[in-house]
Amino acid sequence: MNLELREFLFLPLKEQTFTFSIRAKEAGLFSGVNSLKQMLSNLSLHVDWVAPEGHSLVNGTVVLTGSGEAEQVAKAEEMLLGLIGKPSGVATAAAEFIRKSQGRIKVVCGAWKKVAPEVRAALRQAIATGGAGMRITDVPFIYLDKNYVRMFGGVGAAVSRAKAFEEERLVAVQLKGETKPILEEAVEAVRAGAGILMIDTGELDDLHAVTKASESGGWRDEVQIAFAGGLTLDELPKVIDAGADVVDVGRSIIDAPMLDFSLDIIKG
User: Fold this and answer.
1) Residuewise pLDDT in 10s, the chain (268 residues)
2) Which of 156, 225, 244, 250 could be 111's S-S partner, Cβ–Cβ 3.0 to 4.6 Å?
3) 158 lies in which domain range?
4) Cβ distance 186 to 215 under 8 Å?
5) Domain identity same for 223 and 263
6) 96 domain residue, yes or no
7) Any keyword Transcription regulation (predicted)?
8) 204-216 vs 182-192: helix axis angle to the nearest 10?
C-alpha cells in the first residue's frame, strides 16, 4: 500500500463532510483576515462565515465557520491558525497602547520595517487595525536616522542638507546624543530647520530636558517631539506627562505574543 500516512488514516472517512469552527481562546482584536482568505482559496473548503478585520474577541468568539473533507480540515488546522495568531496579538497590543494613550499622544509603531518581507503586510495591517500609526507624521517628510547623522558628521549638517532638497517637506531627525549631549543636538537640529525631533534614547530625563528647553527657549510650537526606546505600556503615562507629541513603540507591539485560537470539529 503506497499511501501517505494522512491519506491512509482518512481513507475510511472519504466523502464525509465535517463542519468546523475557529474560535478565539482569549480576548483581543482579530487580525490577519486578508492572509486567511488567501489561504482559504487554496483549500477545498466550504466557508460559511469569516469575521471582519478588527472584530472584537473574548474567549470563545467564533471567527470562522466552514466545512470540508477530513484531510482538508486537518490541513486547515495546520495552516490557518498561524495566519491569524501573530497579527491578532500585534493588533491587540497596539489597541492597548491606544486605549491607554487616551488621545493625548500619537502612538506609532515603525518596527514593521524590521520584520521579514513575507509577514510585513500582515503586521502593518495589524498595527493599523489596533489603531496605531506607522509613520511619525502624515505629511510629506524626510527622516534622518543615526547613520545619516554619522555620515554628515553631525545633526545640523544632516538637517541642513535635507532642508535644501525641498522646503515644504518636514525634516525629522533621530537624536541619540552621539555627537553632542542630547539637548545640544536638539537645539542644533531646530536651528537647522528640523520639524520633528525623535529622541531615541529611551531615557525620560532626555525627554524632560528637551521639552523644558523648547518651552523656555520659545521654540516649542516650531517642532514636534517624538520619543522612542524600549517603551512599555506601563511607561506610556510618564512619556505623555513629559510632553512628547509622538511615541514610537517597537517591541512592545511588534513582539506581542500570539493570540490563541483553536479549530474544532462541530459535527461530522
Assistant:
1) 566 888 888 888 988 999 999 999 999 999 999 999 999 988 989 999 999 999 999 999 999 999 999 989 999 999 999 999 999 999 999 999 999 999 999 999 999 988 999 999 999 999 999 999 999 999 999 999 999 999 999 999 999 999 999 778 999 999 999 989 999 999 999 999 999 999 999 999 999 999 999 999 999 999 999 999 999 999 999 999 999 999 999 999 999 999 999 999 997 5
2) 250
3) 133-248
4) no
5) no
6) no
7) no
8) 40
